[in-house]
Amino acid sequence: xxxxxxxxxxxxQLLTRxxxxxxxxTVSTTAASASVGPYSQAISAPPFLYTSGCMPIDAATxxxxxxxxxxxxxxxxxxxxxxxxxxxxxxSKVVKTTVFIKNMNDFQKINAVYAKxxxxxxxxxxxxxxARLPMDVLVEIEAVALISKxx
Length: 151
Prior knowledge:
Elements (H helix, E strand, L loop, with lengths): L1 H9 L1 H6 L7 E3 L14 E4 L2 E4 L17 H18 L7 E8 L5 H12 L5 E6 L9 E8 L5
Parallel strand pairs: 4-5
Antiparallel strand pairs: 1-2, 2-3, 3-6, 4-6
Helix pairs in contact: 3-4
């Protein structure tokens, strides 16, 4: 609320031009792995949905999926898809992703799985190699999507 009132003091005309943009809500689904810290799976800030980074954790077991980077990327994108769906969107409305990978040598393998999921849709993307990811996973992906319906 503090952010909203400070924002409106500096830009009161934005509330009348973009009234939905001032409404934030938490998005949560049991179809994807739960957050591993004090954060939400996603925040809906119409017209956009902002997801937290999704990890390769099986929602049913709470464990990291077995296998290598390809299996982990498949699970990450499955979880991401469920969070995006719960937020009222889908992969075709993703505007941007950020991919965090443990080893840049895995870039092509991750790309192959990513391309199958996104098909002809090509959102903007940043991919960075990081020193370490939570739970020592190999890949984590976050996204920003356009909300296509009221969640």
